[in-house]
Input
Amino acid sequence: MKMKKMIALILCVVMAVACFAACGSNPSAPSDPSAPAIDKINFATGGTSGTYYGFIGVVAQVLNEKVDGMNINVQSTGASQANIQLVEAGENNFAIVQNDVMYYAYNGMAMFDEPVTNFSAVLSCYPETVQIVAGNGITSIEQLKGKTVSVGAADSGTRFNAEQILGIYGITFDDINPVYESFADSADSMKNGTIDACFVVAGAPTTALTELATTFSFNLLSVDDEHIAALQEQYSFYTPITVTADTYDCMTEDASCVAVMATVIASNDTSEDTVYSFLKGLFDNQEAITAAHAKGAELNYETAVSGIAIPFHSGAIKYFSEQGLEVE
Output
């Protein structure tokens, strides 16, 4: 009898230990048993000094803390084109990209030799302004002809933005001396006088330009209404935007610009529950996100569904439909 009691006691201890281990093996498991299962999110962003990485890093920190089961891992990458390729290859299931590059990928255009369609739209977050920065002697886009201009990294989204905007003004890359530099390198080249102008496509204010403005006075060139209309007629992903005079120290007046949208995408293999939970967590916790990153204040439902010319993920359709928005 004593032996039987001893065996029973040992079995109870073993079961208790096993139960404790099972409960502790997944610290990210939802505390609410009725909560939907959420896939781990491997989020492709951009360089560590860029807006993509900083903004999504804050989103991840807030949502991982506030949303049961949410597990976002933020990764630094080569930004839009690389991010789409990473999602297509199954390396990442979420990414943030320019909406124009997203459009190119889905339609097999520009830097994509064939269509890439294993992803869907989740939401547009904020505008990325096409900022055309020039030395003080240059006050209009027409004056860029014959000048040395940084048009962004080779095969970057910025390079195509530069080609499209210059093209509306009747200027080709044959009419300028194009150089292919990152935003930070472009700012250094402006300061050193090795280039006359540069294209920077990012949320304004952009760190590289804020730092440049402390030691170098530049002009932010405007795109007039007539050319904005012509640009939108050819490329529907552009939206008008005003960069106010208080954006950079050297500015004395507002600049009329165009922007593309920073857009979150998800692989088609990502579950509906995961995308839905991400969006709900994003908007439910917008105040906390905004407290840590200024771009959080630009999240709104109207912006979220604008500038998107590819299908939405089913989880996004479910969430936005609940908010009274029609998406497909």
